[in-house]
């Protein structure tokens, strides 16, 4: 299937009625108040406070102080005309040890947040897990331990009882690829474990947690929400499409990165060929009878996060093997089982993360999912770019590169819709500049600038541009913008 190679957009593009334009954040990245009102420690508190793990020794102790400034941030969303807000709930703020006693202050915070969104006409999209596992559960094995998936279901049930009359979309997990492969495979994210067997155990227990959580939510919610999971699916291209070896390398990378999540979630089984290809690293004995039916739960919407594609080839073992764009230098690997696969730099332009800007990859990815599962509604739950934003003397923040990035990716999304993909919304990453995990505060993804000394919020030019799009539903061509 041929894709558009023309990223230029001169004509106006109208999105379908009801298309949700919003923005996304994550609890640990913005909330702060890390030790207040009964919140327990998470693996990211432990990881970020360990010297050498995060750039400049940054932590999420204060972050954007969203916990204390939630009303200000809600009003900001109204100013920007957002239709939806995708936020995450901090498990250790609600249940400090991951089991047992509930923290009433934590639940009350999210109840106020949801009420504040609804009062302002903004659709609440709640993510139950965005990487901040309670440290007490990690001490028992974390996501390598099946009991963590069972605890997650209990947590989902108690949150569902509190918010299950008001949340419009429930997302179980954000990017389980990152949790499993960066947290337990490469060691670059919390909890900082570098072990292939642990990574694959985490993959399965995260998939299981998703299924158990949806079942638990359905037991207690009283409205009629949508149920979802968000995956950072990788668009992986062979360096030489005519090379059987490169095509095989891309297929293996796709298998480990994508099919170990998509197949059990949507097809009800793991792909046998991927299990065989990784069998030298783990025996998969932790997948037990009946797990497949627990994992496969009908999804009302599949969340898709996209930033950049990957290009791979078979590695011949000569010289130093390149790693994935922007990958941190860590003791392990985020791509277990890919010893003979090389990730190639794809050329510019790049974002401040070192990621290649390629909107055609988003179109290609959406079409691939839409063609394989045509009945499955999709939502872009994260897309955005980090740039080295600087505040001007007049107090404004001009970020033309980000506007160009968003315009071109939204045009790619519109092309996918025109070609039949059932795409229901777009949540820009991120509403605010924030704690960017192992990069600390060195990378700015927000459409709203945050001064980390004063915590003052300043909408960037991209926020004003996105606000016009959200209010009109029309992606203006460049000539229209000039007029």
Automatic annotation (TrEMBL):
<dbReference type="InterPro" id="IPR001360">
    <property type="entry name" value="Glyco_hydro_1"/>
</dbReference>
<keyword id="KW-0378">Hydrolase</keyword>
<dbReference type="GO" id="GO:0008422">
    <property type="term" value="F:beta-glucosidase activity"/>
</dbReference>
<comment type="similarity">
    <text>Belongs to the glycosyl hydrolase 1 family.</text>
</comment>
<keyword id="KW-0119">Carbohydrate metabolism</keyword>
<keyword id="KW-0136">Cellulose degradation</keyword>
<feature type="binding site">
    <location>
        <position position="174"/>
    </location>
    <ligand>
        <name>substrate</name>
    </ligand>
</feature>
<feature type="active site" description="Proton donor">
    <location>
        <position position="175"/>
    </location>
</feature>
<feature type="binding site">
    <location>
        <position position="307"/>
    </location>
    <ligand>
        <name>substrate</name>
    </ligand>
</feature>
<feature type="binding site">
    <location>
        <position position="29"/>
    </location>
    <ligand>
        <name>substrate</name>
    </ligand>
</feature>
<protein>
    <recommendedName>
        <fullName>Beta-glucosidase</fullName>
        <ecNumber>3.2.1.21</ecNumber>
    </recommendedName>
</protein>
<keyword id="KW-0326">Glycosidase</keyword>
<dbReference type="Pfam" id="PF00232">
    <property type="entry name" value="Glyco_hydro_1"/>
</dbReference>
<feature type="binding site">
    <location>
        <position position="130"/>
    </location>
    <ligand>
        <name>substrate</name>
    </ligand>
</feature>
<keyword id="KW-0624">Polysaccharide degradation</keyword>
<dbReference type="InterPro" id="IPR017736">
    <property type="entry name" value="Glyco_hydro_1_beta-glucosidase"/>
</dbReference>
<feature type="active site" description="Nucleophile">
    <location>
        <position position="382"/>
    </location>
</feature>
<feature type="binding site">
    <location>
        <begin position="436"/>
        <end position="437"/>
    </location>
    <ligand>
        <name>substrate</name>
    </ligand>
</feature>
<feature type="binding site">
    <location>
        <position position="429"/>
    </location>
    <ligand>
        <name>substrate</name>
    </ligand>
</feature>
<dbReference type="InterPro" id="IPR033132">
    <property type="entry name" value="GH_1_N_CS"/>
</dbReference>
<dbReference type="GO" id="GO:0005829">
    <property type="term" value="C:cytosol"/>
</dbReference>
<dbReference type="InterPro" id="IPR017853">
    <property type="entry name" value="GH"/>
</dbReference>
<dbReference type="GO" id="GO:0030245">
    <property type="term" value="P:cellulose catabolic process"/>
</dbReference>
């Amino acid at each position: 299937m041929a894709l558009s190679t023309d990223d230029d957009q001169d004509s106006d593009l109208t999105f379908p009625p009801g298309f949700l334009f919003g923005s996304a954040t994550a609890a640990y990245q913005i909330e702060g108040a890390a030790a207040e009102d009964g919140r327990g420690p998470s693996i990211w508190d432990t990881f970020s406070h360990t010297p050498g793990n995060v750039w400049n020794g940054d932590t999420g102790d204060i972050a954007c102080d969203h916990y204390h400034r939630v009303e200000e941030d809600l009003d900001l969303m109204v100013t920007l005309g957002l239709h939806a807000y995708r936020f995450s709930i901090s498990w250790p703020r609600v249940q400090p040890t991951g089991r047992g006693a509930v923290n009433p202050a934590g639940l009350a915070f999210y109840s106020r947040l949801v009420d504040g969104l609804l009062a302002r006409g903004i659709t609440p999209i709640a993510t139950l897990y965005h990487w901040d596992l309670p440290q007490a559960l990690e001490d028992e094995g974390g996501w390598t331990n099946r009991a963590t998936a069972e605890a997650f279901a209990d947590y989902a049930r108690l949150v569902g009882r509190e918010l299950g009359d008001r949340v419009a979309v429930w997302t179980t997990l954000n990017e389980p690829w990152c949790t499993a492969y960066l947290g337990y495979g490469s060691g670059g994210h919390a909890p900082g474990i570098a072990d292939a067997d642990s990574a694959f155990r985490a993959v399965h227990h995260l998939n299981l947690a998703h299924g158990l959580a949806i079942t638990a939510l359905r037991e207690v919610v009283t409205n009629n929400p949508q149920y979802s999971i968000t995956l950072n699916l990788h668009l992986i291209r062979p360096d030489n499409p005519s090379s059987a070896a490169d095509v095989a390398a891309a297929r293996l990378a796709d298998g480990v990165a994508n099919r170990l999540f998509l197949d059990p979630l949507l097809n009800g089984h793991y792909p046998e060929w991927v299990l065989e290809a990784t069998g030298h690293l783990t025996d998969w004995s932790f997948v037990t009878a009946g797990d497949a039916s627990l994992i496969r739960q009908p999804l009302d919407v599949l969340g898709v996060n996209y930033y950049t594609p990957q290009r791979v080839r078979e590695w011949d073992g000569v010289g130093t093997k390149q790693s994935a764009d922007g990958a941190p230098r860590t003791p392990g690997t985020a791509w277990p089982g890919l010893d003979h696969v090389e990730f190639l730099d794809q050329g510019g332009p790049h974002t401040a993360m070192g990621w290649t800007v390629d909107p055609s990859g988003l179109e290609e990815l959406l079409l691939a999912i839409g063609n394989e599962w045509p009945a499955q509604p999709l939502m872009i739950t994260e897309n955005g770019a980090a740039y080295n934003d600087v505040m001007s003397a007049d107090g404004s923040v001009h970020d033309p590169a980000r506007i160009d990035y968003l315009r071109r990716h939204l045009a790619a999304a519109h092309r996918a819709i025109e070609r039949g993909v059932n795409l229901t919304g777009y949540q820009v990453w991120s509403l605010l500049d924030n704690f960017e995990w192992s990069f600390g505060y060195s990378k700015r993804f927000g459409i709203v600038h945050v001064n980390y000394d004063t915590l003052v919020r300043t909408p960037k030019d991209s926020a004003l541009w996105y606000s016009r799009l959200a209010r009109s539903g029309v992606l203006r061509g460049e000539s229209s913008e000039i007029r």
